[in-house]
Amino acid sequence: MKMPLTFMLNNQQTTLEVDARQTLLEVLRNQGGMTSVHRSCEEGECGACTVLLNEEPVNACLVLAASVQGATVMTSEGLVKNGKPHPLMKAFTDELGIQCGFCTPGMLMNAYALINRAGDNLLTDQVIRKTLEGNLCRCTGYVNIIKSVHTAQKAKLAGEWW
Amino acid sequence: MKKREERLILGKGQYADDLEFFNMAHLVFVGSPHAHARIVSINIEKALALPGVMRVITGKEVAAHTRPLPVQANFTSKGWTWRLADVYAIPADKVRWHGEPVAAVVAEDEETARKAADLVEVAYEVLPLAGDLRTALAPEAPKVYDDWEDNKQVHLVFDFGDPDKAFAMADQVLQVFNREDRVTGVPIEPRGCVGMYDTKNDTLEMWGSFQTPFLSRHNIAATLGMPEAKVKINAVDIGGAFGLKIHAWKENVVALASKLTGRPVKWMEPHRDFMATGPHQRDVFWDGKIAFKNDGTLLGLKATVYHDLGVESTNKGIAALSIFPACSSPTNMYKWVGMHVEGIGTVTNKSFYCAYRGYGKDKGIKFIEAAINQVAKKLNTTPEAIRMKNFIQPDEFPYHQINNYVLDSGDYPALLNKAIEMADLEGFRKRKKELAGQGRYLGIGLVTAIEPAGVAVPNCQMGGITEARVLITPDGSVEVHSDRTEIGQGAEISHATIVADILGMDMAHIHVKRVTSDFIGQGPLSSRGAVYPASAVAKAAKLLRKKVVQCAGSLMKIPADQVVLEKGYIYPTDAPEKKISYAQFADKMFFFPGPRGLDPEILKAHDHLLDVTTTWYSPTTPESGSSYTSFCVSADIAVVKVDIDTGVTQIVKYVHVHDAGTIINAQVVDGQIQGGIVQGIGEALYEGLNYDENGQLMNTSFSNYLIPTAVEAPDIEIAHLETPSPFSETGSKGMGEAPIIGAKAVILDAIEDALSDFGIRVNDAPATPEKVRKWIRQATKKNR
Amino acid sequence: MPDYSAGNNAMKNSVMKNFIGSRAMPDLVYHSPKEMKDLLALVDAHGTSARVVAGCTDFIPSVRTGRWCFDQELNLIDISKMPVLNEIEKTDDVLKIGAGVSLTRILESPEVKAHCPVLAQAVEQMASLQVRNTATMGGNICMASPAADTVPPLLVSEAWVVIRDAGGEHKVLLTDFFTGPGRSVLTRGQVLTHICIPVKKSNEAAWFQKIGTRTAVIISVVSAAVRVSVNNGICETARISLGSVAPTPVRVSEAEQFLAGKPLDDQVIAECARMAAHAISPISDLRSSKEYRKDVAQTLVKRSILACREALK
């Protein structure tokens, strides 16, 4: 069933014609042009397609596009401002929390929501690890990813954030 | 300066799944639900009737339009058992493992192709299984390849040094068994590519997750019966590889689909396919005897290692090839009198065996490390004492090992001492004793390992061939070409660092190009990146530097030895104010005034073009026969807690001391170490591919093939020694596989130590909670 | 997160389903009712061609793996947008949770923390944050997996579910809800709308533990929930439930009865745990052998009772 879908995508009101059987992952990649939303397991196990739906991380492969009518969706492309990397992105580059880069966009979105939720509370390793449990990474051993999240939170607390 | 990482982090990666071409069609494979069955008939009518379906390619068509898959490694001439199968990319006669493709659907879009894949009707006659090594080797076992005498594919026999003398000298001999489950690498991104056959020029170009484009071109061209010159393979951004994306196999069918439809064809593999029909590794059993003296001197080994290879179908000898390093690596970093090692490889109805971080060299080391720790226990000494006694000493390098390895450099005692100090070994041993009285079980594991890196073997596609090109373009920037595909291991940043240092340039102006089949070489495998391609790139950059210096001297009218290259500028030693930028220099060299502005002698010698293509080959391999050039070393110490009532292991501390020679980029090296260790931990504790009694693979998703998440991964403390390799151009050693070797071995050793009260041998990986608990129950029963 | 291993569709005949890494989604008509009457009308109108979903976290994997196949267009009725099913309310002695409430909201709910903390304990160990943000407890119950982690805490809390159909509202005790793996008393035309949980009393404590091959994001090999009420150091009532040890999550009544009326001393607890493990006859599957399940069930029950005792101190 074809249907019009209107939602906020990375702060832009977006209307697309979608099919009811499409997942949010397919629509974001194929119609929305958001190719940072990576497709791997398609079953909600790897976290590579993590996006923020109404500010909370979800696996885009497990969300029907039709169900995001009127919702707010953010992908890692939405973190970029005027072509500049978000401080979170910069932290991942600086700390080399990225190797092959495939899990990275999903990791970024989960970490972004986490840091925003944390407010002024300093995140512990344990909280970061537990929060990122659904984002599998096979390259980094997670060590530099945890470091990146700490560095990013420091940037946020120093006022460098959007 | 991390160009690639900055691009990827902005979401500008172009992975295989991001490829889009005008008029592109999509391909989906139809796999066999049976592990071993004759294909009776295939009915494609219903699938073809679905609107949007263009073509269904079956094994018969593949046989009609392509050739059998080419041989990639062949050792028949050595007089060993070495059998190869004569098969096509899709079989027409019978399927040999669960998931093996029987057809490929090409459609206008992927969803349609997936729908049609369900409509392909295949009738099978189910055959009896050779489901595991034991069954496959039994007399009268069902044969995986009908034309073979039996299922034994390989039997290699090695004698290193004088094994009989070693055993004659021994005070004691200890028998050791070890088993490792079948595992796979599972990069998060599966395989994928686009094939585009140009019907006007009869050329084929492909883009995708190719770890080794040059080898892929050879194999795809051979399969399609095309001249290699008419095929080009391009690597795009690759979402992890670890060896699993070396071999082109299904990619042949994508190429054929494009040829048959005249359309660009994309195939993006579902992750479940990647697990069921992707490369597997390990699945070995060791049975060996280690000979030693009462004073702890190690003497020799007599061992056989049995490999369950799965099918031989897809990579033609490369699976079997990994038995070589498995057999020769037990020498590790110790002095020996002799070893007799036999390697047996058997085909079974499982997915194929291929490269995954380690590729056999891990197996021998893990086995010998476990064996040596048994010897230490037997002799009532510590694991560190027995190693210190047998280590090759710092003044003995280069050391000609009994198996022909020429160990390049190192300070093994210093390495281990550093790890002992960092781990507070004595403190934890005390703590273990304290806790033991309280029913809590702490264990300390200790392992040391070499990593033979940078392979060059005869009679196969891993021969050590490599090519690098470094050139200055007229705008003064630099292009670097090599065969070292970026798979997340820091190839680009390492190459850029090397070239920037040699040419005195800013990294911003160094452009490391994407790898294509235009450049000769076997690519990043066997941790050869920092050995072969890095050496070739460094060598090319040094030759280019010579040219720059010579030409700049001529332009500035000063002797070449007075030319300084620094921070992007070129100037005379005594007159820094006369500096010109690389851009100005290149402009002069190419155009204004151009070559005629140079000393005529330079032109006569044809030295004016700022473009160097060269190669590099190991200085030790030709004469010694050593298949590897560099040997980085590591010492791992892990402390674990075992909950003896549930069998759950928790890692308390992890220390890794590493010597990979000169470090090109410390962050990259640490990243490789951390990632490798966590993969090793996964293998030690959770990962295993299990086939049921019908030959069905039961672990086909991340929900049941369990890799570590951020929760299980420990903090990792790392320290480096830097003993430069005398044999590589930069002093660096390959190091990509070392961490996974030590990590798996040390975790198992630590669990064994934690359970020392029970007298349990932890020799069957993974040590899942269930298995640990089973061992404890058995031991408790026995002790009663 | 049910376990859809490829082996599930494996049978020894020649007309088995093809092995396909990821299957196409069926043709769908998407419905997102807002009011209960709309929901009931949709369920009534579409009968067998309809599926009710909340988070879709089971629906989509079931389709991808071929576990669920739909030859014809499917009417998908998404209840996650229904305000009436998205509330957590406490009325008198009952905590009422709508079937559309996400696991994350259950985990973060002060009401759940105060009145049924054992449920939050279980939810925290379920799936990943991403899945918890969309998955629901209603869905977890309706899938009727023997490994559903929300169920043992609900069983020991003596929860019931509210089922709506054209005939009105029905209350079904959770102990009577499951009929087998993937099966329940729910019939076509019925929708599970609420889960009702009697609130915890001050002399009660409850505890949940699970074991999996890995720590995080893992399907239970065994899960256990225990609730005890204690008066003057004597156990008044005990409820013990185990997951992944039978075709449905179960209560082990002999062990419960054994504990009642006894002091919670180490010996009694050990014997109770032994009886609990004795009462179950789990199967061996990919995740675990039956021996390990029985073995570890005993440990989990023991530890959960000990934790309750500790909490009541």
Key structural traits:
heterotrimer, A: Ubiquitin-like (UB roll), DNA polymerase, domain 1, five-stranded mixed β-sheet, 33% helix, 17% strand, globular, B: 784 residues, alpha+beta, Aldehyde Oxidoreductase, domain 3, Aldehyde Oxidoreductase, domain 4, seven-stranded mixed β-sheet
Q: Helices, strands, pairings?
A:
The complex is a heterotrimer of chains A (162), B (784) and C (313).
Chain A: E1 2-9, E2 12-19, H1 24-31, E3 50-53, E4 56-59, E5 72-74, H2 87-94, H3 104-118, H4 125-131, H5 143-157
Parallel strand pairs in A: 1-5
Antiparallel strand pairs in A: 1-2, 3-4, 3-5
Chain B: H1 3-9, E1 25-31, E2 37-43, H2 45-49, E3 53-58, H3 59-65, E4 81-82, E5 94-95, E6 101-107, H4 110-119, E7 121-126, H5 133-137, E8 152-161, H6 163-169, E9 172-183, E10 192-198, E11 203-208, H7 213-224, E12 231-235, H8 250-261, E13 265-268, H9 271-276, E14 281-292, E15 298-310, H10 318-321, H11 323-328, E16 338-347, H12 361-378, H13 383-390, E17 399-400, E18 406-407, H14 412-423, H15 425-436, E19 441-455, E20 468-472, E21 478-482, H16 491-503, E22 510-512, H17 532-556, E23 563-566, E24 569-572, E25 580-581, H18 582-590, H19 600-604, E26 611-614, H20 621-624, E27 628-643, E28 648-659, H21 666-685, E29 717-721, H22 738-754, E30 764-765, H23 769-783
Parallel strand pairs in B: 1-13, 9-30, 11-12, 15-16, 21-22, 28-29
Antiparallel strand pairs in B: 1-6, 2-5, 2-7, 3-6, 4-8, 8-16, 9-14, 10-11, 10-13, 14-15, 17-18, 19-27, 20-21, 20-26, 23-24, 24-25, 27-28
Chain C: E1 28-31, H1 36-46, E2 50-53, H2 59-64, E3 74-78, E4 88-91, E5 94-98, H3 103-108, H4 110-115, H5 117-124, H6 129-132, H7 137-142, H8 151-156, E6 160-165, E7 168-173, H9 174-177, E8 178-180, E9 183-184, E10 191-198, E11 204-211, E12 222-231, E13 234-243, E14 250-251, H10 253-259, H11 266-279, H12 290-312
Parallel strand pairs in C: 1-3, 2-3
Antiparallel strand pairs in C: 4-5, 5-10, 6-7, 6-10, 8-9, 11-12, 12-13, 13-14
